[in-house]
Amino acid sequence: MIEIRIHGRGGQGNVVAAYLIAMAAFEEGRYGQAFPNFGAERRGAPVMAFVRIADKPIQQRNQVLAPAFLIVQDQALLQIPGVTDGLLANGKILVNSNLTSAVISAQLRKEVIAIPAANLAKQVLGRPMPNTALLAAFFSLTGLLSLESLAKVLKHRFKDAVLEKNLQLIEQAAQQIQAGLWQRSNSNSTNQEEAVHATST
Prior knowledge:
The chain is 44% helix and 19% strand. By secondary structure, it is an alpha/beta fold. It has a 6-stranded mixed beta sheet.
């Protein structure tokens, strides 16, 4: 089971992003779970959403406390205590930022990929809504789910010009990063752990 925690602010489509991931999992015949955690219900207030993806029914209903991945829709949230809490030792962070991945990784001392998701959205959609662009980057980085599945679920949610713009946005966002980067990284980590286990036995 893969656990993901999404951090954003009210009005950024945080909860929608979580549901889109879960729906994409359903599209691929897998199980998905998504639910929000609201603090102050006002625009701009920090909001969390939780996602689980698995190949069998998901029994857990608690908040995601030890995510493999964090998706952060506002770079400033990385300065708030607790945002990166519980991230697995080899966990990864995807953040909406105009800074480079190297700069933020050095600041946090964790592996971070940064893309200017809000800027991309403003150019394509006309408003700086980062969620769709971040999901495209996340799907491409991890290979957990396909961009085709993301396109399908967007077609369930949007129509006409709005849909076309979102499809254009996910294509552009996916081109911002190295496809499969985290997929290979996770595979290497697993192989290393298996090798250590085999040696110790």
